[in-house]
Amino acid sequence: MRIYYYDMKKLIESYTPHLHEQVCDVISSGYYLNGPQNKIFENDFAKYCETEHCVGVANGLDALTLILTSMKIMENWADGDEVIVPSFTFIATAESITRSRLCPVFCDVNNDFLIDCHEIEKIITPRTKAIIPVHLYGKPSDMEAINKVAQNFHLKVIEDAAQAHGAIINGQKVGSLGNAAAFSFYPGKNLGALGDAGAVTTNDGKLAELIRTLANYGASKKYYHDFQGINSRMDEIQASILTIRLKCLDKENDLRRKIASKYQEGIHSTYVKLPYNQEVGNSVYHIFPILTEHRDALQSYLKENGVETLIHYPLPVHKQKAFSDYNGFSFKNAEKFANQELSLPISPLLSDEEIEYIIDTINKFSI
Q1: Start-to-end CA span in the chain (Å)
Q2: CB-based burial of residue 181 (10 Å sphere; 0-12 exposed, 13-18 middle, 19+ buried)?
Q3: What number is the average pLDDT over the span 299-318?
Q4: How far is CA 13 from CA 10, 207, 339, in A?
Q5: Integer Cα distance of 97 and 122 in angstroms
Q6: What is the mean pLDDT of the chain?
Q7: Residue 155's pLDDT is what?
């Protein structure tokens, strides 16, 4: 049996012929940028996330950067002001901070791979301006605790929701839990385009307007540039694809949770630690992470038996060469997870037979 980690081609084929027809309609329309499909998706996604505004941009990194840069302008932050961010995340979270000429302050994560709320207050300084909680692997961070700290210290909260489309915590959608949120629609996401795309959601109209301006070369009116902005746009084809896929997001997230439940119940290998105290919880399972002290051996064994796995992530941000100024720092959980995490297939199109095969293969693993 051959099981891919994520068979994108198979997933997209499940949307045919509707997806092909939609793309052809966009091509025939003559609108390829800043057209009606962007407006439709922005309205639909804002409504889905229960926010007043959505701004489509080119990718998730731009979404985060545009939020920070806009807040920096609006709040008069200085170059070098600080933003707290988990060390165990995809590097884009930290890169958005440095791109905005701000300074990342890394924080360790808890046993659920999320920023450790108990550590945040310890690293706040007079220069701290914001916190970026990452809803890693699809599980929402403890936004109630984070917002409480932010309120006490007058900080902004920016959700990195790139892996958590559709997740809900305390009855509220991810994307509506802070001052603003950044989404990525990279093809492999729970809500993915067929290329790069991203979005910002917020209830702050002035912030949304400034983000839209900065993403358009700093111009709110054509050829009149109030800021030195960037070119960050979602094209019409990607917007139309996302509108179609958004209608299926909740259904696909439910399928991911069902697969996660089977993993939690079925995997009993003594070599593997399962996430979230073996409960499914409120994650939308962009990634199903397991921990093992024998990662290389287990990954090789699974590959030999036809099961493809990935690692998210093999090196925490503070140990990356790109952030060499921070290489001397140590964060216990971030470093442990970087050494032990292995991601199992969790595509919503996995069959019961494939799921059982993965479970059985893991349970047969031995050293």
Answers
A1: 23
A2: buried
A3: 98
A4: 5, 38, 35
A5: 20
A6: 97
A7: 98
If one compares 261 and 16, the residue with the highest pLDDT of the two is 261
Q: Which residue has tokens 């988990």?
A: 86
Edge-to-edge strands of the sheet including 128-131?
A: 53-57, 198-202, 180-184, 156-160, 128-131, 82-86, 103-107
- Backbone phi and psi for residue 145, each to the nearest 5 degrees, phi listed first: -70, -40
Task: Write out the two tokens for 362.
Answer: 């893991």
In the chain, the amino acid numbered 304 is: E
Taking 90 as the threshold, does the pLDDT of residue 16 lie above it? no
Binning pLDDT at 50, 70 and 90, where does residue 115 land?
A: very high
